[in-house]
Specification:
Chain lengths: 395, 395
């Protein structure tokens, strides 16, 4: 069999591994005795629109509509609804032809990479810290995955580092803002600078360099931080979106790829995405949830809950003495490890029934990620454990 | 971008293309004036269990259960329910550890191929006539796709041809019974012969050769034809299953991969499938429909409807004078084209508002496939059009 796949299946994503560990631990100690900050599983329930729409759709339509195949690119009305929603949000003029429905952000990214990559020389760049699975998705297509080291001061894009990493083989750069794991929202200035930088590189290398926006956290943003619509700043932008986080539907695998007309070769790129989806066995995005999105595209879960959690955990941990990046969006807190080796810190935290993800797999050393999409009770109850963990380093 | 993917996206599956053509034609002429036999979209509604379970699950559980991430391999209770159902049907002793939940048969197949294939020299075989997308799925992994020519008398496996096609590079052979497009159920004798043949080849080549069963039509079978459980006949068997057809849920993308313990290297193979699913961006199978399957795994749609359709169309067409393979299972009829070139026959049929799929893409020349998972009214109304089409060849 394929040894790379065996390795990928055996060395599970550290996040998934901690998720499994936590399930066992909770079964042993009880749900409320384990402070699991490992997984980005939204804690805020979906808007009422979701379950109401499900009932409405299966009650008032025939089953072929509700559960039958849609076109590979997705149902027309669904894609219309999404285009309309985007146009209202961003003052754009997208049409259904710009949208390809997918089984969530992971599928969107894998399909986009597969559509773009021609050979193993092709490079796709991520900016550290970055979501661990990008490497898996890019290498799954046979391409080369390269990392732009982090700017540990601002957690925005470090252009000196980017200039060192980019080459004529660079096909695309992934931009993930609000960022998983740092919780930082890239500033508009930073993104405009990226746009200029890439425009120059496109001229120098004489081929397009795509920005691939992975933006499942687009709607989760605090205190007037603004998530720029990158296609409005840079023509060759492909957006990979998922409703997992904004509508609290991570298990349902529903999202889309947006390929604006301004994108170089946009029509062919759309077709290549359709081809890649076909080669990967994505026949169509789940039909019931396509129809749900048609009805709920304009909704989000109650984002105030995440804001409350953010304040609770950020203030709680900094008061104890931890150093944390203040989250501007998403539901992740990036916290400095209390020792150089974040894995060792993770292991120590486990002894206090605290589950956090070491930053090494995000392309940065010496931090841990806390997914604070948990109940406020979990956060409150975890603080004494965090204090004890902190104190254990004083001894 | 990737030229192969562009080609795959541009030259859509002929079935999907006809599906799109039919939608346009129906919009022009009216639903009842187009006799569309292109797509295997189940016409029989799901068992009541499906929509009842959906309502039950979303009403009586928290949303994290209903819509949240499951483990990558699927929810434990769901996999238990499926193992139990299989054990009752086939007198086996599968456990949840043998089952990996997927987004339908296409995903099951793509993931299995990706898990097995190590290099472009690796060969995966299909027996003609075969489901068109196998070629796309196999070549998507970089492997070589090879076809065992059809036995046009029995539409079972032609061992003389298989002996010519198999080589030391053969990793696996796909077995699809009841067969799409022929509607034939492979006999137990034929499958036992395949088992012996492959056992000898495994010894000769000194490596396992897997049978990959693609069996979404397992439950759709007529008049006492029996679909053998191939893992009981041949150890190195991997089953790729989907509930698309048996439960009439093709748009929901829900199925599984079964890797029995007897399978060579079964534990590693399971992990390699998990790895392949990860590399293709399949985070987990859709969660709500996983839970639905837990409740409905023992059910099927009303198969009598397909039987009635089968009789109606087979008798109707043979009475007109067409030569058809009598379907023993699935909901496809394989009919001889009235001219050598099945594409030309398809085009002529379109003039009579009849939509059928030429057999060339199924690896056989001179036939068309009719998916009779349509209303009986469509079949009845289509017969005069089929008669006119038949008569047009007499002129």
């Amino acid at each position: 069999m394929n040894k790379d796949m065996l390795k990928l299946g055996s060395n599970r994503s550290i996040i998934r591994e901690l998720f499994e560990f936590s399930k066992l631990k909770k079964a042993e100690l009880g749900e409320d005795k384990v402070y699991d900050f490992s997984l980005g599983n939204p804690s805020v329930p979906p808007a009422e629109c979701i379950n109401e729409s499900i009932k409405d759709i299966i009650t008032n339509n025939n089953d072929t509509y509700s559960h039958g195949y849609t076109s590979a690119q997705g149902d027309n009305n669904v894609r219309d609804a999404i285009a309309n929603d985007l146009n209202k949000r961003y003052n754009t003029s997208y049409k259904k032809e710009n949208i390809y429905m997918t089984c969530g952000a992971a599928a969107s990214l894998c399909i986009t990479f597969k559509a773009l990559v021609e050979s193993s020389a092709d490079e796709i760049l991520a900016i550290a810290p970055y979501f661990t699975e990008y490497k898996v998705f890019v290498e799954g297509t046979g391409a080369t995955f390269k990392v732009v080291p982090a700017d540990l001061d601002t957690f925005n894009i470090n252009f000196d580092e980017l200039a060192k990493v980019i080459t004529k083989n660079t096909k695309a750069i992934i931009v993930n803002s609000p960022n998983n794991p740092s919780g930082v929202v890239y500033t508009k200035e930073n993104l405009i600078k990226l746009s200029s930088f890439l425009n120059e590189k496109e001229k120098e290398y004489n081929h397009p360099i795509y920005i691939i926006c992975d933006e499942p956290y687009r709607e989760i943003v605090y205190e007037g931080n603004v998530v720029s619509h990158i296609p409005s700043l840079y023509d060759n932008t492909i957006v990979c979106y998922s409703y997992s986080k904004s509508l609290s539907l991570p298990g349902e695998r529903i999202g889309y790829i947006l390929i604006p007309d301004k994108c170089f070769d946009s029509k062919d790129l759309y077709l290549a995405c359709l081809g890649a989806g076909r080669a990967y066995g994505y026949v169509c995005a789940p039909s019931l949830f396509q129809h749900v999105i048609e009805k709920c595209a304009t909704y989000t879960s109650d984002m105030n809950e995440y804001k409350k959690n953010r304040d609770l955990i950020y203030n709680g941990l900094t008061n104890i003495g931890y150093t944390c990046v203040q989250p501007q969006g998403a539901f992740y807190l990036f916290m400095k490890s209390l020792e150089d080796d974040a894995y060792k810190f993770m292991e120590r935290a486990k002894q206090f029934n605290i589950i956090v993800v070491p930053s090494d797999n995000f392309g940065v050393k010496g931090y841990v990620r806390l997914a604070y999409c948990v109940s406020d009770t979990t956060i409150k109850n975890s603080l004494p454990a965090f204090k004890a963990l902190f104190d254990s380093y004083k001894k």
